[in-house]
Give the backbone structure.
Amino acid sequence: MQLEIITPDKKLFEGEATGVSLPGTDGSFKILNHHAPMVASLKQGIVKVDTAAGTEQFTIKGGIVECGDNKVVVLA
């Protein structure tokens, strides 16, 4: 799936990912390839991105995530 993690200052990540773990306001969750469309709010925490090369981590202070058509956009 295509993943973008965007902050007001810069784009933290853009590329292909096999999964992304997110700190949702109602609890942590993971989005995998071909996930059903959704929008969720995020709290402060760590976003873990699984790629073919390994795992990357980013700290966010909150935001929202939108998922659809095998594309995930995190606005943090």
About this structure: The longest strand covers residues 45-51.
